[in-house]
Amino acid sequence: MIQKLQDSRAVLLGAVAIFALGLTTSGYALGDGLRRSKMAEHRNVTVRGVSERNVTADLATWSVNFSHQGTELASAQQAVDQQARAVRAFFLRSGFRPDEIEDYNVSMSREQPTDREGNPVGPQKLTVTRSIQLRTNSIPKVRAAYGRQAELLRDGVELVGSGSNVSYTFTGLNKLKPEMIAEANKNARESAEQFAHDSGARVGKIKTASQGYFSVGARDGEDCDDCGSSGGSSPFQKVRVVTTIDYDLG
């Protein structure tokens, strides 16, 4: 009887030992799996790819703003009309077509002079302001004419505010987008592969990707990943796009 009890006790202790060993092994395997999973989450690299193109603007918008001040609306309007004819004549002799020239804006303001007590003094002052805009694809003609804009002053044009300014725009961006995006993605992949090589790893699949947006700025300006512009005061411009891609590392 005693022998049977001893044998049963030995069997029970053996079973408990085996069960404990199994729990230990399972716990180690589970912990190791979680550790590897956690490590895998952090084995990634974020890289940026850049693509740039030098372009020349193909659209110029030139606005000339002028005004005249007086006490009589009729005379002020007549003076502004004369200035408008002078601006149109300047554009026409510079080689631009009549259909490229248009009235852009006209406005009038009144100002009543007052004394220290706020009482009206003298007649009201009227200011008539007008703008004429040139919109053309003839970029060389615009650059040549812009260098002679002092002629407007000699012709009696009373420039106001920004006076005379030209904005150049590149309109062919959509044609460049597919090729530039592909190039930026390729550059990003090459950067990731170089990083993986230096780290003794290999590039895996893409985790996240962000194309970014296209910017158009002066060709000689500073690079700016977050700039967004449709052009500027120079016809010589640079198109830029930056992509950001997060790769797994094996």
UniProtKB/TrEMBL annotation:
<dbReference type="Pfam" id="PF04402">
    <property type="entry name" value="SIMPL"/>
</dbReference>
<dbReference type="InterPro" id="IPR007497">
    <property type="entry name" value="SIMPL/DUF541"/>
</dbReference>
<dbReference type="InterPro" id="IPR052022">
    <property type="entry name" value="26kDa_periplasmic_antigen"/>
</dbReference>
<dbReference type="InterPro" id="IPR016907">
    <property type="entry name" value="UCP029033"/>
</dbReference>
<protein>
    <submittedName>
        <fullName>SIMPL domain-containing protein</fullName>
    </submittedName>
</protein>
